[in-house]
Amino acid sequence: KHPNIIAIEDLVREGDRVYFVMELLSGQSLKVLAKDAPIELTRVVRLMRQAAEALAAAHGVGVIHRDIKPDNLVVERDAEGLDQLKVLDFGVARIRGADMNAAYRTQVGQVVGTPLWMAPEQVMGHQVDARADIYSLAMVMYVLLTRRFPFAGSDLSQVVMQRLQRDAMPVGETTFMGEPVPWQIQRLLEMGLARELAKRPVSMEWFASALREIELGFEDHATVDTPRRSWWNRWRS
Hints:
Elements: E1 8-14, E2 17-22, E3 28-29, H1 30-36, H2 41-60, E4 63-64, E5 73-77, E6 83-87, E7 94-95, H3 100-104, H4 120-123, H5 130-146, H6 156-162, H7 183-192, H8 204-216
Antiparallel strand pairs: 1-2, 3-5, 4-7, 5-6
Helix pairs in contact: 2-5, 2-8, 7-8
């Protein structure tokens, strides 16, 4: 249980069928929110910090999500009207120490998840650890800030395969709305999107702590108005 992870309310067995009951969410996914209107930098950091804290809690009990993407991050409003992000869809999650062949029918070399948001080792079908989730969350943050992927390509397959051959392009000094991107965020995304595992943050807990420090350092920012244009249609996952 974590305030930023969708809750499982009940587990029911009816004959040979077993199902679970989840809480009903009333918010929208990050994919929908970003399509409808720009999300300013301070809000992006706040939402990514909540997602990182949720995933750190999951990693703490041995659960690797393996499918972090905007569709699986839903934003609601709490009782005070503040953003409350929920991580959902642990359908392809890996449990540390479990027999993957028996529990998930997952073979070495089989790709599980959504390739557009995957870490290089996950694209290759290798067994992954918590650093794959760090990579995917850094990818989501990068795209929210820039409205582009950190790899060139004329189609989705090229965008996916580029990450196997080269490092991600720097996020840059400004967001797509012209907001200055602090060097701490530039460095954090460089680390999060590193091809080499050893260059990524050591844990999601560390990643969440870095985002928390950045968030505390922010002053209030006015929202910059930009045309509300759909940008997900080209990069639909």
